[in-house]
Amino acid sequence: MFEVTLSDNKKPLPAQIKHFDIGDGDFIKKWELSIPKGKIPLPTVRDSLELAKLALGRWNLRRQKDNYAYNLDELKDFIKDNPNVEVSLFLILEYKEDQNNSSILCVCHLRRTWSNNILIDFLATHPEIIISRYKAGSKKINGIGRAMMQAVSTIAKEINSKYIWGETTQNSYLYYNHLFDLNRTSDMLFISKKKYTDFLKIINTKKHK
Amino acid sequence: MKKLSEMSLQEIDSLEEKYSLLLGSVKNFYSSLTETEIRKKAPDTDINYIEPSSNTLRFFDKTKFGVGFTKFEEFNYALKIQIKKFNAIFLIQHTQIGTKSNFNANSFFLRNTNLVFEKKLGKGLFNILIGKLIWKAKLLSSENDQGLFDWIITSKERAYIPFKVIDSTTKHNEISEIVKV
After folding, report:
1. How far apart (Å, rounded) are the C-alpha atoms in residues A92 and A148?
2. Are A188 and B151 a contacting pair, CB within 8 Å?
3. How far, in whole angstroms, is CA A13 from its chain's centroid?
4. CB distance A113–B157 less than 8 Å?
5. Cystine design at A127: which of A45, A85, B83, B133 (Cβ 3.0–4.6 Å)?
């Protein structure tokens, strides 16, 4: 579990990145319900929902057949047992508004590949977060992508991965270029060890004002 | 644009307001198609298409074999290659993601190829596959001269080719040197 801090441009918001569990499965319904009815959703909203469904679908389908780690120690145990093992992880970013209300704002399905790298299968954000970007005056929560990539980079660092990789979209590749100081005009996200450790060093020294 | 180290955490976090955070293959049809369904959809010939999405269908309705697509449109399509001699089926997804600005990725993915890339496959068979891919890429290159093989992966990363851009002029023997099957 990773304690992270988001922000709404006014104050820091404490949140957690944890491993997905059966009890979290209803998040997808909540995401669907948050999309305004009666009009075609924005492409990024539609894609986000689709990716989240694919991530959840994969977890539902494969969790009893594939190796899934639910914390870092488990991941390391799998690797110790078999250095070529492929292990999946399903991370969620949970924000608790108060004691009774919490929301999953981001999901990320990733794998430790047989060659000890981290492959991000799917990363998706809550549709409300995307929609809020287009609505003047709505509450904007920031730091979700940064926090999730902090967690993914920390995992990569812990197991000494040579790189993190995945597939961007035309709307997301520039974000990752900024975050990791990359210069790729490609759908392939490729973050070398130097880049993700530099990112962690920078982020870990910064605090919300 | 300031470097990350020069930005405050608030500035870094507000970058998210400009972009989406999505990662993953959006039209990830392979996860929903079983091999039986693939076999059912594709006639038993050497090369066939499988149409996994409406986008793909539109593409095929408009065009024949990769000619005439809209350059800056995102699309996916799949190409099935069956090599009867080896009883092997490859499912290749081609994705182009483009906008009217400067982003135009044109990649090939090998999907649902576990059957092939387990121990059953040797380099010889892989070269046949790559040969087919290059042939396909040559057809596409008349419409789009972007890098044809930005990356090629299998679902288990066994044929992942980092950095090495293979274009339609790459020869088979060069490929077998850089691909570890």
Report:
1. 8
2. yes
3. 17
4. yes
5. A45
Q: Do A185 and B8 lie within an 8 Å CB cutoff? A: no
Helix, coil or strand: residue A23: helix
For the record, the structure tokens of A156 come out as 């990569």
* pLDDT tens string A88-108: 999 999 998 877 788 999 999
Contact A117, A161 (CB under 8 A): yes
Contacts of B23 (CB under 8 A, 6+ apart): A51, A108, A120, A122, A123, A166, A167, A168, A169, A172, A189
Contact assessment for residue B176 and residue B129, using Cβ atoms and an 8 Å cutoff: no
Cβ–Cβ under 8 Å, residues B74 and A170: yes
CA distance A56 to B49: 28
Q: Which chain B residue has its CA at the smallest distance from A145's CA?
A: B21
Q: How far apart are CA A27 and CA A31, in angstroms?
A: 6
Q: How close is the nearest chain B Cα to the Cα of A70, in Å?
A: 21
d(CA A168, CA B13) in angstroms, rounded, equals 19
Ordered DSSP codes for A93-142? EEEESSSS-EEEEEEEEEEE-TTS-EEEEEEEE-HHHHHHHTSTTS---B
Q: Which residues of chain A have pLDDT under 70?
A: 9, 185, 208-209
Collapse the DSSP code of B8 into the 3-class scheme (helix H, G, I; strand E, B; otherwise coil) and give the result. Answer: coil
